[in-house]
Specification:
8-stranded antiparallel beta sheet; 43% strand; disordered N terminus
């Protein structure tokens, strides 16, 4: 078939438009470890000519890859790249397939204003104003174990509240069997005053959910005011993000109202059931928590922190035990007013895919190494 000049021009224009609408995202792994289903991000504005919801992301094998646009303008999606390797994902016009939401959270005012969230690995909660008003002392993050990938928070809260089915007992998918009390719990960070006292945050005062799945949950929590030495109106803001497939939350904290430099320290409570069960590693610290009522075959909870901005890791005992808590492992760092401090914290469970302490320590060490040698993402 012969083309007229006009027909040939139209065909060329259509071909050029098709080519320009197809873009490639190149992921390179310069580290010595494989990356599997790691959530990567790029500035969404670097993808030209299409809007999220108007394109499909295709892997090298032709399969469609889920993605999410976050509150801060990032396009995120899971990538798998061999050590030293490179993979190419293609953007093409089209309506993306629906994605099951695995990562999500909300405030539970029906349970003392808990802010609770989860992914396919674990669930967590931060305590809210109603708990503080009740007088109960619980300062740190709580950990809820999971042995299933699907969401369980709504179900557990509902059954506990309406049916008397306690979420402190494993009914085949995990439970809340972690002890927090008046400690930093499973990874909360706090300021340390000039004489070495931890200035514990209490319950959050305000919240804003910024992302709510399907691949990332992000919440902004406000705390305070608290007194640090002579500064009596120190307020805190923290932004917590949890991704699908991740063992760890990313948290960025900032304080306002300080007139002098202090220390900030994320920490993990150490209980008397396993007082020596912690590891202070290269860029991370870990603890094998025996859980409440360990004789009930509850399995060990592995808690960890990766703190790239901290200079040291240490165990600090309490002068007197606080219930069954004997101290904290801490990752202190210098802190000045307004500075943003970022660290990572989270958990695994012996009955939920984390075999033992050695496996947990290797997971944390690999995460710390990934922070030092991140995947590179480019659009071409």
């Amino acid at each position: 078939m012969k083309h007229t000049g006009t027909a040939m021009a139209v065909a060329a224009l259509m071909a050029a438009t098709a080519c320009s609408s197809r873009q490639e995202i190149v992921i390179t792994n310069g580290s010595a470890t494989d990356s599997s289903e790691e959530i990567v991000s790029l500035d969404a504005s670097s993808v030209k000519g299409v809007k999220p919801g108007d394109f499909r992301l295709i892997g090298a094998d032709g399969s469609e890859i889920p993605y999410q646009l976050t509150y801060d303008g990032q396009l995120i999606f899971p990538a798998t790249v061999k050590a030293g390797g490179e993979v190419v994902y293609t953007i093409e016009p089209g309506k993306p397939a629906e994605v099951d939401t695995i990562v999500w959270g909300r405030q539970f005012p029906e349970r003392k204003d808990d802010m609770a969230w989860e992914n396919d690995r674990s669930a967590y909660r931060a305590y809210g104003p109603a708990l503080e008003q009740s007088g109960e002392k619980a300062y740190g993050y709580d950990i809820w174990t999971k042995s299933v990938a699907e969401p369980i928070l709504e179900k557990r809260y509902y059954l506990d509240r309406e049916k008397g089915v306690s979420f402190h007992v494993d009914h085949g998918e995990g439970m809340d069997v972690y002890a927090v009390g008046p400690t930093l719990g499973g990874g909360t960070a706090a300021l340390i005053d000039s004489v070495g006292n931890i200035v514990y945050p209490y319950a959050y005062t305000d919240y804003e959910i910024l992302d709510n799945g399907p691949l990332r949950f992000t919440v902004k929590l406000s705390y305070g005011p608290v007194t640090v030495d002579a500064d009596s109106a120190v307020v805190e803001q923290r932004v917590i993000s949890l991704d699908r497939g991740s063992w760890l939350n990313r948290t960025t904290i900032s304080f306002k109202g300080l007139t002098h430099e202090v220390e900030i320290a994320p920490g993990i409570v150490v209980h008397d059931g396993n007082p020596d069960g912690y590891t202070l590693g290269d860029g991370f610290m870990a603890y094998a928590d025996p859980t409440q009522q360990p004789d009930g075959d509850n399995g060990t909870i592995f808690v960890g922190i990766v703190a790239p901005e901290s200079d040291s890791f240490l165990f600090r005992p309490f002068d007197t035990p606080v219930g069954d808590a004997v101290g904290h492992i801490l990752a202190p760092a210098p802190y000045a007013d307004g500075r943003q401090y970022t660290y990572y914290w989270g958990s695994g469970w012996e009955k939920g895919g984390m075999a033992d302490s050695d496996s947990w320590n290797r997971t944390l060490a690999a995460f710390a190494e990934r922070l030092r040698n991140p995947l590179t993402v480019t659009v071409r």
